[in-house]
Amino acid sequence: MNTIKLNPNDAKLGLAHILVSFAAVFLGAIAGLLQGLVRAGLITLPSWLDYYELLTAHGVLLALVFTTLFIFGYFISGLSRSMGELSVGERKMAWIGYWLMIIGVAMAATMILTKQASVLFTFYLPLKASPFYYLGLALVIIGTYISGSGLLHHYFTWRKNNPGERTPLFGFMMVSTLILWFIACLGVVTTVTFQMLPLSLGLIETVNIELSRTLFWYFGHPLVYFWLMPAYMIWYTSIPKIVGGKVFSDTLARFSFILFIIFSMPVGFHHQLTEPGIPNAWKFLQVVLTFMVVIPSLITAFSMFATFEGAGRAKGATGLFGWFKKLPWGDVRFFATFMAMLFFIPGGIGGLINASYQLNTTVHNTLWIVGHFHITVGTPVILTFFAAAYWLIPYLTGRKLTPAMNKFGMFQTVLWTIGMFIMSTAQHVLGLFGAPRRTSYTTYGDHPTALEWLDGLFSNYVTMAIGGTILFTAAMMMIYIVIHLAFIAPKGDTAYPLAEAAEDASTAPKVFENWKLWILISFTVILIAYTIPIVDMIMHAPPGAPGWKTW
Ligand code: HEM
Ligand SMILES: [Cu+2]
């Protein structure tokens, strides 16, 4: 087999990230299961364990820790594979970043588990956690900056050493994602440094909540693209190879990532549509921009199906849909990714609903939202990362996926899909009936409306718990698969699937790699969307709010 082996030091670095990321899945899934069972009234937690403590752990571990560590592990491995091994200095930066992330996560997790930070993964003010929780999160972000700078350095050195050559699609997409991350974090860093930390240290008495929420969501929306873009990277750069096809259009793929840099930041107000401190015109502008950021996702969906059709036809498929049968349905690397893509169709439509002002008033803060992010980040992103683990982990450990593990993985994917379908449908329906999110078990004094949430087919907390239990089983199967691929699977050659472009890719316009230009445009749009409302929030601030510890 003509597999290109990774520099062993880079492989070790990538693997270190990925293994810790799956430890987060293990713990996060346990929390998820317990939450589902509590909300259905099926279990009561022991007095030393609190619902909101679990919910904080669940959100932090799965949405923040798993994603970030997996993404950096994937970046390091893929960059080393497609643009050559990291230099000693770059590798050192990545290790420093790694350890800062680990220490940060350990600090934040300790605070959560010792009941000093039940502030949920969004840590909105005026909820007040221990300063160590915020410091832990800050270390994670500093870690990503250091590690990410090393990766950027690698990319720019490559470009200097290969003048005139087209940069690999992987490198291009990684740089776009890191630029987005670096710009997005500025918001959360600002509110943590100047509002949350001083408040929790007792240096200030009160804070401006509207300002903090605005800074948080300036970060919070691009955060979802920071999760999504690496999943799209896997779709664009590896899946075509796995289905035996080519990247439908290298130029279009790059273009969609540039659109993400420009449009995913100035849109945070769509999470604040119900907040009174922001004039409607600014909400309107940001909602319009939100709908712009749908375009690159539609481009991606189009490209994927074009790749699938091309691959099928190259294998001799005929008729309108004959290519569909030619796809490698028995290959878990494809099957799991395909299921991930399918979930993104209702997930994306739900996003359009959430972003529409009038509809948002119906679904805001209900379980609908929980259903929504489980079929966006919780499946399209996470199942894609699972799918990548089937080749990435054995590639890094010099092992191979056995046919038996492939079959087990297919079964795991089916269970995840069924569990998620049941759980998220129940959450969407319950949300429409008014069931709130982030609320422990209660029947509100047996109010008839609340009782309805326990007696429908899908409008039923028990249905949600059944889905959650199936999902939990699938999560534990995935943990077993990861352990197998990392430590038990037979030694062998595993290829890292990297696809080629279909067209003469040298035609991609040079301006695409003019990062300064995209950063400039990005900041311009951000300033237009945010300057006036933020100045307004500061100039006409209400009296500050004191911090609260509600648990
Ligand atoms: C074992 C599988 C899972 C189960 C059983 C599960 C279950 C749940 C439940 C029942 C809630 C709602 C709690 C409430 O609002 O009161 C919840 C919230 C949440 N889940 Fe999951 N989930 C699972 C996997 C995931 C995954 C893979 C992700 C994403 C990466 C995820 C991200 C979240 C987030 C961000 C929240 C919101 C936390 C908050 O509101 O602060 N979950 N989950
Ligand atoms: Cu958003």
Describe the structure.
The chain is mostly helical and 551 residues long. Among the domains are: 1-117, no CATH class; 328-497, no CATH class. It has 19 helices and two strands. It has helices at residues 8-39, 51-83, 88-113, 131-161, 169-201, 209-237, 239-242, 250-263, 280-292, 294-314, 322-325, 332-355, 357-363, 367-374, 377-397, 403-432, 448-452, 461-488, 515-539, and strands spanning 206-207, 545-546. The relative contact order is 0.13. The structure holds protoporphyrin IX containing FE and copper (II) ion.
Number of beta strands:
2
- Strands ordered across the widest β-sheet: 1-2
Give the percentage of residues in beta strands: under 5%
User: Given the structure, what is the number of helices?
Assistant: 19
Biggest sheet, open or closed, and with what strands and sense? 2 strands, antiparallel
Q: How far is the N terminus from the C terminus? A: 58 Å
- What is the average per-residue confidence, as pLDDT, rounded to a whole number? 93
Helix and strand composition category: mainly alpha
Shape: globular
Bound molecules: protoporphyrin IX containing FE, copper (II) ion
Task: State the helicity in percent bands.
Answer: over 70%
Computed Rg: 23 Å
Low-pLDDT regions: none
Topology pattern, helix = H, strand = E = HHHHHEHHHHHHHHHHHHHHE
